[in-house]
From TrEMBL:
Homodimer. This is transketolase. The gene is Tktl2. Keywords: Calcium, Magnesium, Metal-binding, Mitochondrion, Repeat, Thiamine pyrophosphate, Transferase. Its cofactor is Mn(2+); Mg(2+); Ca(2+); Co(2+). It comes from Trichinella nativa. PROSITE patterns: PUM (PS50302), TRANSKETOLASE_2 (PS00802).
Amino acid sequence: MSHKFDSFLTLRIPSEPEKKFFDCKNSAVLHSKTGHKLCSSSFALSLFIAFSEVGNIGWQVGWEKLKMQFIKFNNEGNENFSTHARKRKNFTGRYFTHPAVEESKKSPSSNEYFGKFEELKHYIEHLSRKVQSDEANMSEEEKSILFKNLLSECHGHEISVLREKDCFNNLLIIIGDNASIAMELLWKIVKIRKKVILTLMTSYGGALEKLLAVALNESEGSRKASVLLKLSEIALENVDSLSVQHGGSHLLRRLGSAISGVEKCAHNGATPIFSAKNENEPKRFEANFLNQAEFISIYNNLAGRVLNWKSIREFANREPFSLLVQDFIAFDSSFNCTFVNGLLPSILEEKKKTVYSMLTNKQASRVWDQYIRFSSIENVLKLYENCFRGSVARLISDQYANYPLQQMIRKVDDSVLAKELYEEVLQCFDEIWKARLYGVVHSLCIFVREKPQLETILVEKIKTVLNCRDPKICEAHFLRCLLSMQRYVQDKVFLKKIKYFGSVLTQTLATFSTKEFFFEQMLNLPYEDFLQISSTSLGSYAVEALVKAAETLDQRKAVVNKILPITFKLANNRFGSRVLECVWENCDVEERLPIMDAMLKCSLNSQTGKLLAAKFSLDKYKISCWSTARMPNALPDLHTIQELKDIAHKLRIHSIRATNASNSGHPTSCCSMAEIMSVLFFHTMKYDPKNPRDPYNDRFILSKGHAGPILYACWVEAGLIPESELLNLRKIDSDLEGHPTPRLSFVDVATGSLGQGLSCAAGMAYVMKFMDKIDSRVYCVLGDGESAEGSVWEALHFAGMYELDNLVAIFDINRLGQSQPASLGHRIDVYQQRFEAFGWNVECVDGHDVEALCRSFSSAAGVKHKPTAIVAKTFKGCGIPKVEDQENWHGKALGKEAAAALEAINSRIKNFDHHKLSINLPRIDPSKPLKANDFSNVKLSEPPNYKIGEKVATRLAYGTALVKLGKSCDHVVALDGDVKNSTFADKFKNAFPDRFIECFISEQNMVGVAVGCSTRSRTLPFCSTFATFFTRAFDQLRMGAISGANVKCCGSHAGVSIGEDGPSQMGLEDIAMFRTLPGSTVFYPSDAVSCERAVELAARVNGICFIRTGRPNTPVIYSNEEQFSIGQAKIVRHSDKDRLMIVTAGVTLFEAFTAADVLAKEKGLHVCICDLFTVKPIDKRTLAEQAKRVGGKVLTVEDHYPEGGIGDAVASALAEYSDIQLTSLAVNALPRSGPPDSLMDMFGISAKHIIEACVQLAGHA
């Protein structure tokens, strides 16, 4: 039998298994821990509190966020229950009661309270921690139940609760702003004896005042009036004793505030920044008692006792009474200042010595300050005439008396007495400035507004003390004083006098100049100086002024971005935290969102920092209620969150079905990133699903390409691919391959060879930010296993160095690799530290928490000058029973386990229909249309300009041609690996610095970046380094070829002809390597003219091109008008007497020329010489024709290893001709350092060896 009272609790008779587990009988009586009998012995009930760990014993209901604990069962006659209770996991004995159970307390047998105060105190402390935790996202109904039961628990202990400071503070945390509960507690207190209430008011008035402040917000007026009346009557009878006690004074102030309808003053002395006028009006609220005669009478009696000159003169030097008087002066303004005006005659009769004594006292001077503030101008002038005239010079330099005098200066008008006061102050201006009484200066500035003559005099005074006549320099001096104020911190004599130095000087600056000057100078400060200023007692006021000076949205964002990098250091600093609090108070929620996210991930040790973090953490609850239309990357609403969760589960289902259909694939790798993909594709990214290649789209790169099925699943959910196509995964007639390739319109680069995606993403982000200059973003998902690749860290360095804040790398840290766990497992902190060391903003997040992911991506969008790494802790195979977080499931379809997995995942889906989320379309600037560029007609801006025979290195000609190409096409970009002064790419950098990308010594990343730059035909990248160093980037080149990348590579310093640098620098494998790439073109120009034309032709042809250049200066052999074509060789020497053909290119061409001359002259042997120009595609037709013409004798010569070079290329081209005899000369051993000519001779490719080979080859005829 079950008794369900609401959606929160359920009472029911225990089932048989439960009786056995809890060792209780049907006749058991349920007690609370404090002794309350919850039900009669005739009606045995068990009470269950639902939360996520209850399992199948409890009743699953509402309140999952607040982790409630089990009740404690006591068995009548069985004292052993507590022993059995410990069997249950999470059983602690703490409980919550329910209002329905309270009926059972009405029986005579159960109305006695057995609880102890110590238990109650611990209980309240426990609840306060729960309420403060993130899990305490309670509904109003749940709070109501909690508060009512709490009042029940406090019954009989109300006085003890107020007396215990920590206990009462915890109680206030629990009560929060619930006025009805606070009033309920007060209602019980006022019903006890008057003597006890007086004791509370005297000794614990502060606690009572805080409770009263909350209770006064209750809407029910009758009970509020009764409580106020009772407390006011007792207060009135004991004003003298209460007014000099801190707690009693606070209570009297609260009572006066409630009756007068005027807010109780904060008394922090802070002056509004850039205030246009003197604000004297106190803050008011609606008071319900102003028209009730009994309260008017009480107020008059209270005000008469407090605003009494005799009492003020005697007790104003005591802080409690001083604060009380200050507040009642403000309260009295609601009643036409009756009592304030009544003080003047007594003051005028007082001795000046007494008045001066009060003015120089800290507390009493504050009373004077408040009195002058709320007095009429006529009374202030009378006060000056009778008490202050002639004494201003003596009083103005006092650290306390100057404040009332400042108020007086601001208050007075244009009367003769006012001008006399002003002149008296000006007479001692130099002393005021030397004493650094800048508050007085500020008051004078306020006084002279709209008084041109007086303003001119004051400005001249200020310029004089600044030793300056130039207004701009004057402003700079003011600013310098403002920004260097920390120098005064050690000056203890004047420390208190310049407490508000920053505020005052800022306002003074605003008086004579514009806020824009101050704003600009502050934002341009280096971060080190800005942090130093923000972290000092006085400097923090300047930064607060900066925050308050920001009037527009852009200005506030600029301030937040300035503060963001030093958030952590400020939060743990007492003064810096004041700056952050100022941001919280003066910026809207969406403006301070980046700081909120920074605060949430800070490890704050100081109490100030923790309180500040708690304040910022409230923002996330405010943001969660906003519409995504206002802030599309902020936290979504609850409906969207559920939709994103459902999509994540559907992506898992698609991935499992697809891999099962192909009987291969990586479903577990897909499942670990399901929530990441759901949030990215259906909440964060902006793209047009109907036009995946739109240049304005956000880009997505799946670096962990083996998770391709989940990428395909996303595009199914986006509507681009039919769901049925997923079942064709990995089939020969399907474009849904095992790893993504650009055969699919939504894939920019092929991935799957791990560690390369981030470099490509960095290239895309670079082009978007610096060339296209659009606000689109690039997202790249990497696995934790591939993060061991060196190319990943090269890319991290590159992106951090270039501050690619439009790049987000998501690291899917699922712990498991292919054959064993990844090296770092789930050590998220290590990943964070490493990425931060590379200059990245890092967000650590639960990768399966949709809401947390939304927040992290939103935070990343607000970060400037840093790329963002989202380190997502995930579990491989998440959601799959018996597979999640288990080894040996990598790269395996689920097979027989698929049915159970699909059933388990389906059970978590709330909405099986197609999602209703709208994909965010890209922001397109109609004034700047972007489209794919056509490079097929690109040409040099001017033809080559060389003289025949002029010696020019081909590497130099490459640099010259690149500049010419850059002039004719502004989409050409150059990349180099820190050898630009050797490859001569520096010529392009000098001509087009904005289009040159220095990649430093990281060739793998350079090629990856170039591939990224080339995507969607946004740019035409040329990357250069030594030919031999491209070998380390061969995998990137191979994947670039699979991607169809349009990348041009120039490898200089090829072969042994580079000389003394030795074999590590000699490119001897490069031709072979580039020839193997599908669709590649390999150029080997021999002189400067052919090299420039090779660059031009490479730009026109789509695909990967390699241009091999040499270090030595070689003669120009072609005219500037010579025409070149891809796949067309040049016969540079021939005659009718030719008996064999030498096929070569590059530096060995000139060795062939030398050999040919010797052979013709000394041996009478004439040879034909062929300059290949392009090794791939090779000119098969010309080679065959010339070979037959000379009798079938062919010799190849190359500065390259034999394997895969020119010899192999020619042999392959002529293989079908059986009558052609081929001999090859190549570098035949491991080379060494030495002079170029000697090395060429040593390794068999010099003219001497060519002669010998030709003679030998011709002798076979």
